[in-house]
Design goal:
This protein has a domain of 51 residues. The protein contains 4 helices and no strands.
């Protein structure tokens, strides 16, 4: 009877020890999962912010309707306009200028250049169609 009691106490102590070990491991795993879930939530927020920035940039470069169609992977129908100007330009030394300048100074320079060019095009009515 004593041996049976010793075996029963030993098994009970081993079960308690294993339960404590398992609870500690489970606690660590749950803690890691909570940290990972928080990181995933933060990355989701960052992704949403970047998506809004990309959408805003796309809408600055293209008409909103065209941008929306492209974002939905739809075909964009060709449109006809009575009067358009297509302007291709190259700024000699632009890479060096932009490397030596503050980014906002580069943007201001480009805006001034293209506003001036746009006014010149609007002042001249070429009457030629391409």
């Amino acid at each position: 009877m004593v041996i049976y009691s010793v075996i029963l106490v030993s098994v009970t102590l081993m079960c308690v020890a294993l339960s404590l070990w398992y609870a500690k491991k489970l606690g660590r795993i749950l803690s890691k999962m909570a940290k990972h879930a928080q990181k995933m939530k933060l990355k989701g927020i960052e992704l949403s912010v970047e998506k809004r920035r990309a959408d805003a940039l796309l809408c600055q470069m293209l008409p909103r309707e065209v941008a929306e169609q492209l974002k939905m992977n739809r075909d964009v129908e060709a449109q006809q306009f009575d009067c358009v100007t297509i302007y291709f330009s190259d700024i000699v030394g632009f890479t060096d200028i932009s490397a030596r300048s503050n980014p906002m100074d580069v943007i201001d320079m480009l805006n001034a250049l293209y506003r001036s060019t746009s006014r010149s095009f609007n002042a001249c009515h070429y009457g030629r169609r391409l």
